[in-house]
Amino acid sequence: MPRCRCLWMTDTDSLDGAGCFERPAFVVFCAALLAPVIAHGLWRPLVHALGPAGNASTVTLAALAVSGAMAVAQAFRKRLSPLCLLVLGGLVSVVATVGGALALPGLVTLLIVSSASAFFLPRLSARLPATLDGLARRHTLLFVLYALLALATVVKTAHLSIFMGDSTRVDRQVVPGEKFLATHSCLTAYVHADALSRQRLDNLYDESLWAGSEGIAAAPATAENPYRPFLLDYYAYPPPFLLVMAPLSRFSGDFAAQRALWFGANGLLLAVGLWLVARWLAGPGTHRILLLAPLFFGSLPVLATLQIGNFQIAVVSLAVLAMVAFQRDRPALGGALLAFAILSKISPGILGIVLLAQRRWRSALWTAAFAVLWLALSVLTLGVQPMRAFLTYTLGRLSSGAAFGFLDDTLFNITTNLAPFGLPFKLQLIGLDVGDPWVLARRMGRVYTVALVTLAAIASRHSRDRRSQAMMWLSLVVLAALQSPFAPAYVAIGLLWAITLLSVEIRNIVSGFFLVSLWLLLTVFPPVPDPTMLAILSVLRSLFTLAVPTWLIVRAARQPAPPAPPADPAALGTQR
Predict the structure, then answer these.
(1) Do the beta carbons of residue 22 and residue 136 sit within 8 Å?
(2) Beta-carbon neighbour count of residue 115 at 10 Å?
(3) Which of 477, 483, 543, 576 has the fewest CB atoms within 10 Å, i.e. is most exposed?
């Protein structure tokens, strides 16, 4: 039997995999992680259509049973056909439906889960790198740690899926006992804006239509909240974003179904993005990125963002997948994805600067063409008024911060804002005299924008390998998101993804400790009762969130250019 490989080895000599269990175990891990996400993206919408049956906990356990049985069967019988897997999944689905009294909605949900598993399990198993084989035996301690983290990731994701299927199960949210997370849902803004857009109002951004959202006057006591127990959030995105609300609008009036469908769709998009990027980054040591991908998926920042339903996860995924598509010479696909990401949240427009700086005119033209298409579809679907209102009313309020009037009204809002725009308010909280913090914040915002565009233009002119390019894209998207006057912690998700790409460079315990410390410094924010100390820590966190992606970009720009492809001997012979 060939010698098994250490977890931190980077040579790419293939193994035959005989007697190794790492690849099958990884497949089981991924199946268990995604099954509840898929199931709860389906169950509530099916309940809406077919009638109530079962409960969220039973659906989660049944989905785990279906995917787990299929993944284990795939692991022990490597040549098991998709049809056999599908039959096995169907049988387990029927048993789970009867045992859990899930009725028709549950049965359909589980059958779709089994179909999805039958599709991706063989493909995932066949495409995993052979460098995974033997890692557990070569580095037992790291394997045990990874196994414990994987188990915790599956449990935490399964718990969240229960809360996404049943909002009364606050004991299963990402941070039990956290009231803000239990009552906040960005999706309320998207759904409410979609409903207003279909009324053909002059200005769907008018604050009078958003009573009860953060920073706006409270709604009358007699007003009904259709999103209960969640509070209404304010919408400030461009109108083309509302095109993605079309599937959710079919469940109008049933926010539970809309919330579940949105959760499943965003979770699957992130999973696809992590897989495709990891596959594209093929090279020495990139199996580590693949190993970290599901742990990143189940990390607290990602799960919290999936819970509140913010579009940031999808924006980062779409933007990076667009750039990968450009690299793979698929400019139409890349243009469609990047144009939609830009028109949805503006900040990915920084990648347009990258395309122009690299003189990739074809990719830039495809992006511009699809931007026109998405704008046209938006106008045809919603009318011209939403776009007119965004340009004349909302855009200026976004840049000035007027759309975020809550920025300085509470300690929580001040200290959770990572944007440079928020620094003057923190400095004032510490006790420093900054004059009018709003004036200083706007000046800082303008300076920051110029610095960001300059950084993107300069860094983009340097040649680099695939991994360095991906880190640059992710870091730029994070820095661009920090242009917003209000940037909560979820804007750093792209940065955490970029940090997982650094795992390729780990050579010893010191570098591994550095990577883990970097991750913890960006994700852990200890509760501090003293307001002044809390403000100081918040300033440091904001500066750190700015410094790390800037460091990654500068570092990537200094990487040596990838070697040129070897010359064709036949061509050289012709020249001679």
Answers:
(1) yes
(2) 17
(3) 576
Residue ending a domain, among 84, 116, 142, is 142
Q: Label residue 463 left, alpha or beta by phi (over 0 means left) and psi (-120 to 50 means alpha).
A: beta
Domain boundary among 96, 111, 142: 142
Determine the 3-state secondary structure of 231 from DSSP: strand
Query: pTM to 2 decimals?
Result: 0.91
Q: Give every CB contact of residue 106 below 8 A, 6+ residues apart in sequence.
A: 43, 53, 54, 58, 59, 62, 96, 97, 100
Whether 102 and 96 have beta carbons less than 8 Å apart is answered as yes
Interior CA angle at 265 toward 264 and 270, to 5°?
100
Residue 352 lies in a domain: yes
pLDDT, tens only, 439-454: 999 999 999 999 999 9
212 domain residue, yes or no: no
What b-and-e string marks burial along 377-391, b requiring 16 or more CB atoms within 10 Å of the CB? ebbebbeebbbebbe
Name which of 141, 145, 497, 142 is nearest 299 in CA terms.
Answer: 497
Residue 463, token pair as written in the block: 């040649």
Q: Locate 197 and state its tokens.
A: 């857009």
Question: Following DSSP, what letter does each residue of 474-510 receive, concatenated?
Answer: HHHHHHHHTTSS---GGGGHHHHHHHHHGGGG--SHH
Q: What is the C-alpha separation between 514 and 245, in angstroms, rounded?
A: 41
Half-sphere exposure of 258 (CA within 13 A, CB side): 26
Domain that holds residue 437: 287-557
In a domain, 254, yes or no: no
Is residue 575 in a domain? no
Beta-bridge partners for 231: 184
Q: Tokens representing 165? A: 């299927």
| pLDDT tens string 465-475 | 899 999 999 99
